[in-house]
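Appendix B, example 12.
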Amino acid sequence: MPELPEVEALREFLDEHLAGRVVDRVLPLAVSVLKTYDPPPTALEGQPAGPVARYGKFLALRVGGLHLVTHLARAGWLRWREEFPAQPPRPGKGPLALRLLLEGGGGFDLTEAGTQKRLAVYVVHDPREVPGIARLGPDPLAEGFGREAFAALLAGERRQIKGVLRDQGVIAGIGNAYSDEILHAAGVSPFKLAASFDEEQVTHLYGAVRDTLRAAVERAHGLAAQDLKAEKKSGLRVHGRDGEPCPVCGDTLRSVSFADSSLQYCPTCQTGGKPLADRRLSRLLK
């Protein structure tokens, strides 16, 4: 799933490639992709594109007086194309969900692999009309998001820290992969209760959030859209690396599997050497 660093890189890429361009056509090609119908996608045609904003994991492209907003979900992606086939695409065929063509050629496709079909597109007057944007918590890289604001989010939270970091209503843009990376950098168990952090631990975790995300954004800066997935995978030190040696201590990285996801962690760095039980409601083994 694209998270804050990849979506931020896509925002920069689109800002550069859409500057001064005009939308020719917008073609929704999957029944499930379009979540709004008024204004229709045709209202974007003939309008100037840009700039592009990011709200957590959402991209919002301004087109004239409207906004084309998308959330790529778990299996969605944006593919830039300098030219398109002359033959129009057939709706409902393959992973193609929406195509935006620019006057003079080029544009992008929104695609989605798999069968779950969670990729979402909205055409709205204001991005905050999108329910997922309206409920977002603060952006962790925003200038005004300081250590005390972060501490206030954790205070009174009786949930495990892994779930809190992934909750978009608490803090925007962090998903499964970067929460693993942040918690490893902070040396924190993913099952530690958020409200149990002392002042020093809050400070350390806040630093890990900012440093991990900033480093990932920097690695993705300037990359073409098609290169971002590979860069993310190569840059992850813990997530998706079950069975490999920890890059810090050399212990074997372990995994906890859930119904539709998994987390990875280092027992030595994060849980005092004790493995976490591999079940949904597991607790640190005593």
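The radius of gyration is 20 Å. The mean pLDDT is 93.
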